[in-house]
Design brief:
This protein is mostly helical and 201 residues long. The protein folds into two domains: 59 residues, no CATH class; 103 residues, Tetratricopeptide repeat domain (Serine Threonine Protein Phosphatase 5, Tetratricopeptide repeat). It has a two-stranded antiparallel sheet. This is Protein kinase G tetratricopeptide repeat containing domain-containing protein.
Length: 201
């Protein structure tokens, strides 16, 4: 652990490998080795996968797999886990944090918004911020794609540029009302004004 916190990941790998050789049946050293390997820039997914398949209470292994590209595994985090909400939030956020939003499908964006909305234990401010992020991603998607067929709704708004802009504006204004500082409030009001639907008035 000291090697990890002092930036000596390769040494940590060697030490955790030695630990695992003494305790080959234990799960914790495998998880520690996986994290050390990840910190050292070496392949770690196989160890995270071994831990996750062995015991779903080691949620850190699921997040490790997600960082390696297997983001869908976060849906396997048990509903009883205190990390369930964090896993669902990470899944939703991963949709709009891709390098190329143009390749997204409309139902992925709708699903991300729905996933956020279903998290009853999520802090209201965090919910609004995540919903705003999904709405912003959807607006970016519309920059290079026509509105989807079938009149779907995203975060209780029509999946059109005016509909998304109106919903996003309302969220920013609600966040501004609850802002803790004047600077934050002004920044949120500026964001609300920037996304307000364009009109002739």
């Amino acid at each position: 652990m000291l090697a990890l916190v002092t930036g000596q990941a390769d040494q940590a790998v060697s030490l955790f490998e030695a630990c695992l050789s003494h305790l080959p049946g234990e799960t914790a050293p495998k998880l520690a080795l996986a994290f050390a390997l990840e910190c050292a820039g070496k392949p770690a997914a196989s160890w995270y996968d071994l831990v996750w398949r062995t015991d779903h209470t080691y949620v850190s292994a699921a997040f490790g797999l997600a960082r390696s590209g297997r983001i869908g595994v976060l849906d396997e985090v048990p509903a009883s886990s205190v990390y369930r909400v964090a896993a669902q939030v990470a899944l939703a956020a991963s949709v709009v944090r891709r390098a190329d939003l143009s390749v997204l499908k409309p139902d992925e964006l709708v699903g991300a918004a729905d996933r956020v909305a279903k998290q009853a234990d999520l802090d209201p401010r965090r919910r609004d911020l995540l919903t705003a992020e999904v709405l912003g991603g959807a607006l970016a998607w519309l920059d290079s794609n026509p509105p989807p067929q079938g009149s779907p709704r995203l975060a209780d708004a029509p999946f059109t540029e005016p509909g998304l802009r109106k919903r996003l504006e309302s969220i920013y204004r609600r966040l501004a009302v609850a802002a803790e500082t004047r600077q934050e409030r002004h920044a949120l009001i500026d964001q609300a004004n920037a996304v307000r639907p364009r009109t002739w008035l």
